[in-house]
Amino acid sequence: MAVEVLLPKIGLTMQEGTIDEWLVPVGAAVAEGDSLLRLATDKVDVDVEAEAGGLFHPVVPAGATVPAGTLIGWLLAEGEQPPEAPGAPTPTGSGTDRDTAVTNVVAAPDGGVGAGAPAALGGTDVAPASAGTGGRLLSSPYARRVAAAVGVDLTAVRGTGPGGRIVSEDVEEFFAALPADHGVSGDHGVSAAPAPQDGAASSPLVRKLAKERGIDLSGVNGTGPGGRIRRSDLDAAPSAPHDSTAPVRRNAAPQPGDVLPLTGMRGTIARRMHASLQEMAQLTHGYEVRMDAVVSLRERLKEEWADGELPVPSLGDFVLKAAALALREHPLLNATVLDDGIHLLDGIHLGFAVAVPGGLMVPVIEDAAALPLHEIARRAKELAQAAREGRISLTQLEGATFTVTSLGGYGVDFFTPVINPGNVGILGVGRLRDGVEWVDDRPLRTRVLTLSLTFDHRAVDGAPAAEYLRTVGELLSKPLRLLV
Q1: Tens digit of each residue's pLDDT (9 = 90 or more) over 38-51
Q2: With b meaning 16 or more CB within 10 Å and e meaning fewer, what string describes 370-389?
Q3: Which architecture, in CATH terms, is 1-94?
Q4: How far apart are CA 145 and CA 151, in angstroms?
Q5: Is the domain 265-482 a CATH 3.40.109.10 member?
């Protein structure tokens, strides 16, 4: 019996996702629990496992962006044909790759995707790349992404898709046929790119990432079909020793005249922050807190925990614990506003902002108020590292009841953070700086920072918000209470 493969909805806020890569070929036997596809969302990329066994038959191509719950494939019994779908899916921003061609979807005259007769799952006739209306080269978005990643000029690639459309496999085959020492070539239109490594079955993108990370693919165990190396396999592979004399590779910074599309993570941030300011009555309080006791305690912990058995908490970790404990006394800040009223939430699950390329993520420390400080420090470090390396899961980004964000490392004293939709408050943390307190007409040097609490005035008035800040300040002034 045919089993539907639906695009999973992972987390409360996910609306759509992109099939970044099918991890098994058409017609391959799949067992329950096998990795089936690489799903890209507005927050993170994650491998999705098959919920049943069978022979895999996709109905949308790699690169397609579709709503959660969309039928994207079938798992069939031997000799079984896929059922007739009531209507063809309408993925956005995708073409038709040869290894993941779409049933009932063919290339439209303008090079887009349109409904029509069934397309063959894997044609073999080679046709030259052709142009659509206006002379635009027919190629799938995923093929263009692969070509850009490895420096291939698509005009030199012969397309094997419908109507001569260039698909990702065409780019990979073209790239693999190039000399290993190729450079910029007018004949091929190719810029310098990593060459395939012997014995390592992998895509050009994987080889490119491996070179950037200093990973020898010959020593990597591939978990894909036929031992093919996938991007997820690189995470478990050891990197080469760092060469301090080698040039540092960085993402190209935006330049004047660039147009940065509001898509993916950037687009989601834009929509959510705009909606937050439109739907809430947001107000920000600034509050200066003394950090002398925290600074002193942290220096002691560096000595007492020097064996490394317990992680030494950062100043930010102290603030995280204080923010969580204060929510116990001020439950109005640990709430959400729904149509029927203000819902005070049971658990205190603390989100904290982490800057990543292209935006930010908010990992969540569950039950933060109940955790000892060293455990908060450990989880915060692990979650932040996973977010920056792209290894974090959607479940680790969901469920925050309150958020803390810091710009102190950038020299910012005070700012107005924007509330994450679903919360009623967010606490901003400024830089640690010198302050002055007068004692008997004498100036005393102190260590202070400014907290910036933005709250939803629909749920919280100014006085309760100020009381919350005062409680956080009192906890930081006697930080021994934060250790347990």
Answers
A1: 887 766 667 788 88
A2: ebebbbbbbbbeebbebbee
A3: Beta Barrel (2.40)
A4: 10
A5: no
